[in-house]
Amino acid sequence: MTQLLDLVGIFVFALSGALVGVRRRLDVVGMAVLASMTALGGGILRDLVLNVRPAAFFSVGYVVVPLAATVIVFFWHPHVLRVMPVVNVFDAAGLGLFCAVGTEKAMDAGLSPLHAVLLGVLTAVGGGVLRDVLSGQVPILLYDRQLYAVPALLGSVTMATLYALDLHGWPATLSAAVLAFGLRIAAVRFRLRAPLARGVTPQE
Amino acid sequence: MTQLLDLVGIFVFALSGALVGVRRRLDVVGMAVLASMTALGGGILRDLVLNVRPAAFFSVGYVVVPLAATVIVFFWHPHVLRVMPVVNVFDAAGLGLFCAVGTEKAMDAGLSPLHAVLLGVLTAVGGGVLRDVLSGQVPILLYDRQLYAVPALLGSVTMATLYALDLHGWPATLSAAVLAFGLRIAAVRFRLRAPLARGVTPQE
Amino acid sequence: MTQLLDLVGIFVFALSGALVGVRRRLDVVGMAVLASMTALGGGILRDLVLNVRPAAFFSVGYVVVPLAATVIVFFWHPHVLRVMPVVNVFDAAGLGLFCAVGTEKAMDAGLSPLHAVLLGVLTAVGGGVLRDVLSGQVPILLYDRQLYAVPALLGSVTMATLYALDLHGWPATLSAAVLAFGLRIAAVRFRLRAPLARGVTPQE
């Protein structure tokens, strides 16, 4: 179950990466690279920190799913763009799932709750940061229009708390993911933003 | 023999990195950083994924060769630029060697052929991606004018196939490298490109 | 003692990261990300190369100190900017401490002096490179106006030499750090620069 949710998260993140590739008029190789990095980058960074071999290099699904997303975007990107609001909902779902799963794996590996939360957030946002850096943009994470890291933080804290209370398994994971997902959707809907330093006006 | 080929690959990749430093008018430190990252970055990323200490931090040659390339470019870059077509041939040779050696090391470490191929491509293109990101450019890999990742993919698939057939050793490595090299040279010669998503026109 | 020096280095590096966040008008999340990456990035890269779990994910201080720096900059950045020359002195201190501590840890882990020096320099400059890449700038390291990597190199070489002479402990670390610090301060004061390749004029 958790694994299925994980693959869904990878798929929607890969869609968003491949679409950035189309928008920047990259060829199919660039699309596949961006799709894979967006989908797998966060998990790879997490596993490097945990000092284990990245799961992406041991699972067939992790390789095939981003390529499938690339093929879909390659042939039907106008249709994908038309359902982009739906993709954004999926992206929020991916964010929620990745922060919950990342925090869980970090707790399993013996990190403190504080550090597990950090690593959960890194898992959730790392792929997007790599996508933006590779495609030559300042990571959207840093601007965080409409709260992006904060929902991941909420989901990670929830997961770490549940885990510390000995509540494991996919119901706990899903609850944390749903919370993060909900806050992210609310942030997009109501344009919630993180504050800027005193006296600083937002960038255009 | 394989080791000698490896050092040749590192040397030509370092030349290309140091030349980017000259073109961007960086000082000798920037040149040395770009030369080293271009030459060693792919192998370092590969070793991080394989969860072993990067070979670059245990071999003297891996440190000295990029510095030698930096010194050469520092003093004689106009001559190096004049023989740049030759350097491009060497770069294609480096690409071929790195994808073959990377795939081999990944198979040695017990990865599946599918994942060994991925890691082989990462070894071949990783250094160039780091060079481009550090020097503030969108990685040339993403545009892939004149097929860059695809030859590496061909070389990696060849290497993994030979390895799976129990054909090890430097003749196998060299065959895979030569195939990748040949396709890369043909791609430059005949301007072979990967396709763009349906209805997308190439960037200028 | 070494640990206290380490936290001081982290604090001043985090200040510099958070200030870049203010200058680029990022929100508090972006500021915290830049502060943490600047302060912890070099050490994380070092630990990844040494194939151990990054210290940043096992120490509470390493997480709290960059956040404290972010809070200070968030509320009092005009005051921080006014004392910026002081912050630059601290930054030079951080550079010195990080190269010395990084080289020491690398020697402890059994690297050769040559490679320990490289890793010491990576520890010192890695965080700044990540800060610059994330905020969409070419790393200041590459331009190296007023020698940045060279003082780190001097400090690392000193540390490796002392270590090879069996001179361990914080007096050795501090000596190496002070040397690097002194050269960095002198470089800023007297505008010392690394040379450019023959016939190349510096960028504007």
From TrEMBL, chains A, B, C:
Entries under InterPro entries matching the protein: Gly_transporter (IPR005115)
Taxonomic superkingdom: Bacteria
Major location (coarse): membrane
Keyword Membrane included in the entry's annotation: yes
Location in the cell: Cell membrane
TM segment ranges: 6-22, 29-49, 55-76, 83-103, 115-134, 146-164, 170-188
Keywords noted in UniProt: Cell membrane, Membrane, Transmembrane, Transmembrane helix
Glycine transporter domain segment(s): 4-77, 89-163
Protein name: Trimeric intracellular cation channel family protein
Family: Belongs to the UPF0126 family.
Organism: Planomonospora corallina
Topology relative to the membrane: Multi-pass membrane protein
